[in-house]
Every structure is written in C-alpha cells, then in structure tokens.
C-alpha cells in the first residue's frame, strides 16, 4: 500500500492518493503511476517527498519533465565495494568527457572504449567505459580501483542527462532546505502505523488485488475522517508517540 498525503503545517494531513501493488513490485515502479494519478485529479504537489526506494535517474527526469514536479528524496546508496571502502575509487572520482566520449581515472589514465549498450531487449540504455588491462595491471592504485585480474577497470554509466540528475540529487541531502523538507516525510510512517494499529491494515478481508485495493481506499477514507474530526475539534497533534512505560514513569 503506497500512500500519499499532504504535509502542510497549517492544515490537516489528508491522504490524497492510494496505490496498491503486489508485494513483489519494487517501490520505484510506483512513483510514476502515483504522480500520473495525482496529475489527472489536479492534486500534484509542488514538491514530492519520497524515500530512496522511489527515486531513480529516470524518475527524477520524468517527474520534472512531465509534471514540473520536484522530487525530494535521497538516492539509493552505491553498494559497490569501491564506494564502501575507505579509500576506494568510486565513479565520482573519474573525470568524464561526454563530448569526446572519454574518461580519466584518478591516476591520470584515459579510457580505451566508450560503448552504448542496453541491459536487455526492452531495458534501459547504459554506457560502458573500459580501461586497458595492461594499464590497470601495473597501476600502483589498482587495489583501490579494481579486483578483476583479467581486465581493466569498467565504469557503467547512465546516459548524460540521467548521470547529471543523479549527481545533483546525491548532493542535495547536504542542503539545509532539503533536510527541512525531507523531515516532513516522517509523517507518512505515522500514518501507516495508525492504519495498522487502529484499522488493521495488515489483515486483508478479501482476496485479489482489486478487492485489496478497495480495502486500502476505505482505510484511507477512514483515516481522513478521523483527521478532519480532530482538526475541527482542535485536538492537538501528537508529534511523538509516548510508550506506556514512559507514560507510567512520567506519572511516577
């Protein structure tokens, strides 16, 4: 169940979109349908706060190009061993000449091949940059760069526009504005918790995806009614849930 809700400080947080998928569908596949549905109902926000699972280079460009929407969320962590190593040479350490189709490694060596490939018949295109085996084999920094003894270093890059979008998005978490905006997203975790604890979200009453989605929509409607009532009755929001143990300690 993918929920989208408003997060303005001077109005109740209301759910504006419910999107239901099978459990095996990755979150990244949900971003575009959610934004398209919001656009069709004239409910697109100016800024859309999402977690890393909903962000990719393609989604960043599509959100901006199709909907003039700013996607606020961190990029997924680079899981390569070079990135995880304390002194490894990551992709960001290489200088890229997109017009000349060349790459320069941190040691000053130039790539030998720059090829555009496709992951599968219908998969996205990517760029494979290769360095000569003989060049990498005698490099003093080889252990920081590649562990493959049979070939030189390979770089797998996204097309230019997507690569630039990724680089810019990776820098955003360092900006004070980004941190302030992204902190608002924490409210959706509370919404899911409320749906689970109060309305039994994890227990499907029907079989089949369509009936499950209907249950999710009714759950969202119920949450909106509760929140509207609390807003009209001026019930103060609880910024942080207090456990029963902590409450007993406070009383004592």
List keywords for this structure.
two-stranded antiparallel ribbon; 15% strand; three-stranded antiparallel β-sheet; alpha+beta; 252 residues; 10 helices
The neighbouring-strand order within the major sheet is 7-8-9
Structural class of the secondary structure composition? alpha+beta
Mean pLDDT: 89
Percentage of residues in DSSP E strands: 5-15%
Rg computed from alpha carbons, rounded to a whole number of angstroms: 24 Å
The biggest sheet amounts to:
3 strands, antiparallel
Assembly state here?
A: single chain
Count of individual beta strands? 9
Annotation field: number of helices: 10
Provide a descriptive summary of the structure in words.
Helices cover 40% and strands 15% of the residues. It is of the alpha+beta class and 252 residues long. It has a three-stranded antiparallel beta sheet with strand order 7-8-9, with no helix packed on it. Strands 1-2 form a two-stranded antiparallel sheet. Strands 3-4 form a two-stranded parallel ribbon. Helix 2 (57-67) packs across helix 6 and helix 8 (186-199) packs across helix 9 (209-232). The longest helix is centred in the last third of the chain and has 24 residues, at 209-232. The protein is elongated and about 75 Å long. The relative contact order is 0.12. The mean pLDDT is 89.
């Amino acid at each position: 169940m993918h929920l989208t809700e408003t997060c303005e400080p001077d109005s109740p947080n209301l759910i504006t979109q419910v999107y239901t998928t099978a459990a095996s569908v990755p979150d990244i596949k949900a971003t575009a349908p959610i934004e398209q549905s919001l656009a069709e109902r004239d409910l697109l926000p100016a800024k859309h706060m999402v977690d890393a699972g909903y962000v990719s280079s393609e989604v960043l460009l599509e959100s901006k190009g199709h909907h003039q929407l700013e996607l606020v969320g961190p990029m997924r962590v680079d899981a390569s061993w070079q990135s995880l190593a304390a002194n490894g040479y990551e992709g960001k350490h290489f200088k890229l000449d997109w017009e000349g189709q060349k790459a320069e490694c941190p040691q000053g060596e130039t790539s030998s091949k720059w090829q555009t490939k496709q992951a599968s018949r219908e998969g996205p295109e990517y760029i494979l940059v290769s360095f000569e085996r003989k060049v990498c084999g005698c490099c003093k920094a080889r252990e920081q760069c590649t562990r493959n003894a049979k070939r030189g270093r390979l770089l797998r890059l996204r097309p230019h526009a997507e690569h630039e979008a990724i680089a810019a998005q990776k820098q955003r978490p360092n900006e004070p504005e980004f941190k302030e905006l992204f902190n608002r997203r924490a409210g959706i975790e509370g919404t899911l918790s409320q749906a689970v604890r109060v309305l039994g979200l994890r227990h499907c009453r029907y079989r089949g995806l369509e009936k499950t989605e209907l249950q999710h929509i009714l759950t969202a409607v119920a949450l909106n009614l509760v929140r509207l009532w609390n807003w009209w009755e001026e019930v103060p929001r609880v910024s942080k849930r207090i456990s029963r143990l902590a409450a007993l300690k406070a009383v004592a």
